Amino acid sequence: MSPMSRIGERPYRGDEDFAAVRSLLLAAFPITPPGLNWEIRRWEGWRFYHESGELITEDPIRVWETEGRVVAIVHGDGGGDPVLQVHPDFRDLEDAMFSWAESAFAGDGPERLSTHVFDHDLARARLLRRRGWTPADDGEVSYRMRFGRGRLSSRTIDEGYTMRVIRSGDAADCDRLAALLNDAFGRTGHTGAEFAAFAGAAPSYRDDLHLVAVAGDGSFAAHVGITYDPVNRHGIVEPVCTSRDARRRGLAHALLLDGMGRARSLGARTMEVGTGRAAAARAFYEDIGFTEIYEGRFWRWPAAAA
Fold it and tell me: How is domain 149-268 classified at the CATH fold level?
């Protein structure tokens, strides 16, 4: 590609662009710093984790391309805030991307926007500060690990529970998972239909990497999902959860170790998981063996009034 190739921008074109951005994320993963872009599990969830199987978003979306190749996109995170995915060769577009996002997402009102930036991304931080964004105290953490040559530890699941994979084609399993997600995360909106739609359409989804701990009454007490990226030989952990009544029994710990072993047997060399800054979650992943730690924070625009 010529360095003088013309770069244009345009609206989103549905699943054609979904596939193009997914390819961008796969190609960019080994040459970008951690957290610059979403991983493919999150991208596929954005597109397919909806009951209807259709993309449901009121957020604006804009695509940048050159010579028919998508190199960047701005889209929403589901909460009305902008997210950037960009090939590292085209990071000079970020100023224009944020300029568009500030106008398209904020509209004519004073609404504050939020975007997440990892602390090691000094270029993005300098750009945002120049544009009037300010860092907040809250943020996310990305944990990564390399399998290397060592053996993975294992853990026997607690008595009274059994471990198995989800059967995404079974409506009862999908409903049990939705009930667990609502209980574990304090939500009410998850349904079996949305999980069934995601499992049936997401290109990377595999039942054999989505594990559950089943209680004696048949309900799901814990769940760990893993997505495997064979292009980069990389595993992504999402989600990890335990019902409120089954915590502190090591259920998620046992599921995660088993799932990591499954990913490694498929060829994974690295794993990652994202979490907030809660001390308990951080201690859990560090105890598992996630030794690379990348911290970030949310930036907000416009700056808060003094």
Answer: Aminopeptidase (3.40.630)
95 token code pair: 């100023």
Length of the chain: 306
Chunk the chain into consecutive blocks of 10 residues (it has 306) and report each block's average pLDDT, rounded to whole numbers: 78 98 98 97 98 92 98 94 98 98 80 94 98 96 91 87 98 99 97 98 99 98 99 98 96 98 97 96 94 96 67
CB 238 within 8 A of CB 246: no
Domains 8-111 and 149-268 share a fold: yes
pLDDT for 108? 59
Query: Cβ of 3: how many Cβ atoms within 10 Å?
Result: 5
Phi, psi (degrees; rounded to nearest 5) at 285:
-70, -35
Q: Is 178 exposed, middle or buried (0-12, 13-18, 19+ CB in 10 A)?
A: buried
* Geometric angle at alpha carbon 63, from 60 and 68, rounded to 5°: 155
Helix intervals (H) in the chain: 15-28, 40-48, 94-106, 122-130, 171-185, 192-201, 251-266, 279-288
Residue 11 has what DSSP assignment?
A: E
Per-residue pLDDT of 197-232, as tens digits, reads 999 999 999 999 999 999 999 999 999 999 999 999
Lookup: tokens for 170: 């079974």
Work out the angle at residue 134's Cα, subtended by the Cα atoms of residues 35 and 119, and round it to the nearest 5 degrees.
30
Indicate the fold that domain 8-111 takes in CATH.
Aminopeptidase (3.40.630)
Which amino acid, one-letter code, is at 37?
Answer: N
Q: Is 289 left (phi over 0), alpha (psi -120 to 50) or beta?
A: left
Closest alpha carbon to 274 in 20, 24, 37, 30: 37
Tokens of 284: 């859990």
Give residue limits of the domains in the chain: 8-111, 149-268
- Taking the model in full, what pTM does it have? 0.94
